[in-house]
Amino acid sequence: MCSLEPFKIDLKALEEGKTTLQLQLDDAYFEAIEAPEIHRGQLVADVMIHRAGSVFDLEFHIVGHVHIPCDKCLDDMLQPIEADQRLVARFGEEYSEEDELVVVPEDEGRLDVSWLIYEFIELNIPIKHVHAPGNCNPAMMKMLEEHLATRSSEEEETIDPRWEALRKLKE
């Protein structure tokens, strides 16, 4: 089990100026945060924090890959990830997130970036993710073609008469 302690940044303990952290993200990380969509991956997150008084400018650079299911064949595929994100944190009364601003309770003084990093990764996964042509599971692709052929022949047999009338007008 992965410890999420390195992802909890003690903002009060940071000195003025720049601080850099490097966080390793692996399968245990995704399990520890109970990630709903991504369960496996190998990534490195570089976090550069620039402190100016009680304002913290955080820059995230995340590189690596995750395993996600292909939309066509459902086999796992490697999806490369390269993400650059920025947010600003400051102290306040209670925790809140608004766009790129995170307010951290001053009495606690710690910012947990484990879920924020997961969101940055998830936002960099394309909506459509499929294997490169020819790399999908051949057995699944054969099944898919059979079902599509059966389905299209059924649709041709039951054409709505209104559509048929419009087709005649078009011709």
Topology pattern, helix = H, strand = E: EEHEEEEEEHHH
Radius of gyration: 24 Å
Structurally, the number of domains stands at 2
State the helicity in percent bands: 25-40%
Strand order of the largest sheet: 2-3-4-5-7-6
Tell me, what's the shape? elongated
Low-confidence stretches: none
Average of pLDDT = 88
Helix/strand class: alpha+beta
Characterize the quaternary organization of these chains. Answer: single chain
What is the percentage of strand-forming residues?
35-45%
Number of strands: 8
Number of helices: 4
Roughly how many Å apart are the termini? 66 Å
Biggest sheet record? 6 strands, mixed
Structural write-up:
The chain is of the alpha+beta class and 171 residues long. It has two domains: 5-130, no CATH class; 137-171. The protein has helices at residues 27-32, 114-123, 138-157, 161-170; strands spanning 8-10, 17-25, 40-52, 55-69, 76-92, 96-98, 101-105, 110-112. The model has no long low-confidence stretch (mean pLDDT 88).
Distinctive features:
171 residues, alpha+beta, 2 domains, two-stranded antiparallel ribbon
